[in-house]
Design goal:
By secondary structure, the protein is of the alpha/beta class. The chain is built from 13 helices and twelve strands. A seven-stranded mixed beta sheet has the order 1-3-2-4-11-5-12. The chain has a five-stranded mixed beta sheet with strand order 8-7-9-6-10, with helices on both faces.
């Protein structure tokens, strides 16, 4: 595996500065040894390279499938090379976006919201959806029999201020359990830990459960955990945004054709995944082996994949609700999210495919 260098990630409660980079940093790793190969041909907008971020999660199926092995995203970029960064949680990805370490990144809604607010609406735009669903509260069934048993227990999330962290804090508050959002201390203890470390901590008894994305949730179930709550049950029709594609505003302005090319590839990738689920799972597992160090057992992969819905729709109305949840949890002050979306290039792509435009819930430019 390529060498990984990590730095302390700024939390989602701090102002995110523009930092000078040394190496990849930001709790991420570059994967130069296995970078997507340029498809060849003309460079889009004359750009030599586009820097793209994503996570080694099943909820990031679009980049895991579409970036390599002659995938649609790489094809649409032609001779423009893709340089990748693999992140473990959203706040680190937004920090890297602010520092121009990446131009676009797939990321959850809560970090995107927080990054947009902290920058005064100047750092990013959400340009597409990617995934709905794929998050659950998994517990040790010997210690937690029902949601009424969460008081006094220790529950993990991937990172302070990430999408699952906000969901857990909001849920606990709704159950009358008080937790200090910054420290994680309270009626229920919230431990922020890297996704890849959570299963080991769970097996060792260091936590009683975790609110996590796929495949970590299904991995915990495979290690004896019980899926106490599937987050789909908390949302109308079971749909809520888990992963979006965001782009730096300055990059979108300078290189709209590159962004449009990535979106064309993403739309084609999502359509391919929907029609080739078994093959898609194989691509995802190959990517997880490369980016996370090992593939998933078949049963875990099947369970994780069944929990997600790949979609181009950013499900903007649910993002508004998640912003409310972050504010109520104490992670975000009331803020105007108008302008966080720019679905113009996505809708242009969809129109060319004979599809209807998608809506931004009044949060477009």
């Amino acid at each position: 595996m390529p060498r990984t260098r990590t730095v302390t990630a700024l939390t989602s409660l701090t102002v995110l500065p523009l930092l000078l980079l040394t190496g990849c940093g930001y709790g991420s790793k570059a994967v130069e040894d296995n970078e997507p190969k340029a498809a060849g041909g003309k460079k889009v907008d004359g750009l030599d390279e586009v820097k793209v971020g994503y996570f080694p999660n099943v909820t990031h199926a679009t980049p895991l499938v579409g970036l390599r092995n002659g995938g649609p995203i790489a094809k649409e970029l032609g001779g423009t090379k893709v340089a990748t960064q693999v992140f473990n949680a959203g706040p680190s990805a937004i920090e890297a976006l602010n520092a121009k370490a990446v131009d676009l990144t797939w990321v959850g809604p809560s970090p995107a919201i927080n990054g947009y607010v902290k920058s005064g609406g100047k750092n990013l735009r959400i340009v597409s959806g990617a995934t709905s669903g794929g998050a659950s509260l998994v517990v040790n069934p010997d210690k937690v029999k029902s949601v009424d048993d969460l008081k006094g227990k220790k529950i993990a999330t991937p990172q302070l201020g990430n999408t699952q962290d906000v969901a857990l804090l909001n849920y606990l508050k709704g159950k009358g359990l008080k937790v200090n959002a910054e420290t994680g201390k309270g009626d229920t203890s919230v431990l922020r830990q890297d996704n890849k470390e959570i299963p080991t901590t769970f097996q060792q008894g260091g936590i009683d459960g975790a609110w996590v994305p796929e495949p970590t949730a299904s991995n915990l179930v495979g290690k004896g955990g019980k899926r106490l709550l599937n987050e789909k049950k908390l949302w109308k029709d079971g749909k809520f945004v888990t992963t979006n594609l965001v782009v730096r505003q300055d990059f979108l302005k300078k290189h709209p054709d590159v962004v449009e090319a990535v979106l064309r590839g993403s739309v084609k990738t999502n359509a391919w995944i929907a029609g080739h689920k078994d093959e898609a799972k194989k691509h995802i597992n190959t990517a997880l082996q490369r980016d996370a160090g090992k593939p998933l057992p078949g049963k875990v992969l099947d369970a994780a994949f069944s929990e997600i819905d790949v979609t181009d729709d950013p499900l903007a109305a649910t993002l508004k609700s998640q912003a409310d949840h972050a504010r109520e949890a104490g992670l975000l002050k009331k803020a105007d999210l108008t302008g966080i979306y720019d679905l113009t290039p996505l809708n242009k792509v969809l129109k060319s495919e004979g599809r209807s435009p998608l809506r931004d819930a009044g949060l477009g430019q």
